[in-house]
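Regression report. Comparing outputs from two consecutive submissions.

Submission 1:
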Amino acid sequence: MTNDLALFLGAYLSEGHTTRSNWSVIFTNSVPSVLRDIQRAASNVFGLESRLTHQADRCPGLVVSSKRLVEFMEMLECGSRASNKKVPAIILDGRRQHAIRFMQGAALDGYTSHSYAGKWAICLESRAAIDGLQDLVTNLGIVNAQIPKFNKHMQKTYFELYAAGPWGQELSRQVSFLEPDKESRAVEYRDRAYRTALTDRIPGTQGPELYDLVPAGRSGRSGKGTGRQAFRHLCDSRSRHVTRESVRRVHAAGARLPAWLADVLDLEIRFSPVLAAGVTPLRAYPDPGFPCPTAP
């Protein structure tokens, strides 16, 4: 697996289809630079030449003609059309960097919204494809959900995977859009303040414990403002939760944080309240350097 192959497969999930009659893999996208990225990936991975198509009444496209390539896509069980697409097992069982590159390709069908809580979302016809993407997003540490949407015009039900508010912002940071206009809107989305005290809590530590980590201030005039006084709120019995901002301030004041708490800051690990528990079969990356962000 390479980053180029991951991008190629992700772009195929969102923008591609295969035609057995002429043994071709075809991509469509209105942004020329995106088609060139896919063309470059096809050349690097498969050593295949391809052609860009421009027709007045159709969306620009990229055609890669190869019987072996079509058979390769079938072997990976990628699906041949929108309704039967799947995330290949080679991606689901792969490394984090390849999952992110695959998501960049898949996000050619994605978008961000600034209304209400804001969200990062992708809507596809294939439920299996959305289920696979949900596994990837969950393993990236992003709280997410999916909903069915009935399109009256098409008379079809589509499935949307979304990450709302700050979780969508984090996903858009990890998975940047390849299309400049979408990335521009994603930057505006990331600049908005959605995170609340509830979503910014860090479990596993208490205020007094954090307060004790703050080093004592220096005596004399030169030590003014270096004491623990600014952190007395951590000892307030009414404060039941520790926020990320408090941990950051304590760390900036010179406190030596426990290794796990330092990782929470350095790796931008986020937490969400558990409202219900159940058994759901999820794939986990075998990459030992990929932390599980939901386990304190």
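Submission 2:
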Amino acid sequence: MAETSPIRYSFGGDEHLFAEVSESMSLEAFFKGMAVTRAVERLALEGVLDVCLANASFQIRFDPDRIAPHVLLDAVQTAEAQAVAERTLHTRIIEIPVLYNDPWTHETLMRFRDRHQDPSGTDLEYAARINGLANVDAF
């Protein structure tokens, strides 16, 4: 994954640490935030009450009587460095069979034609026509 800008941390009141992973939402920012929040959760820090991930940020609610804010920040930044360095995305391919122009799909789509952009034709006929093709076979 591409390198992103450093996370910007700020404290919200006495018991929240807010982390802005990115100014805009992206998959990179989301996965970076996820890696860091999972690493923080694995630390099981005394005094951390909640870890809440969002698209381009995360927030940690903590008890300042059980963990000092600067101690929490140091631990989170250390977790960030390790999580970002170790980050990999494990994926797999799942094949989902999709049928087009078969009798079962045709029967189902014809039940709802009255609410369609072109009630006189099928989805495939409509797609072929708006793409300038002669018929479904050309599509």
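Expected: both submissions complete independently.
Actual: both completed, but the second showed a warning that disappeared on reload.
Relevant detail on submission 2: The chain has two domains: 8-86, 94-139.
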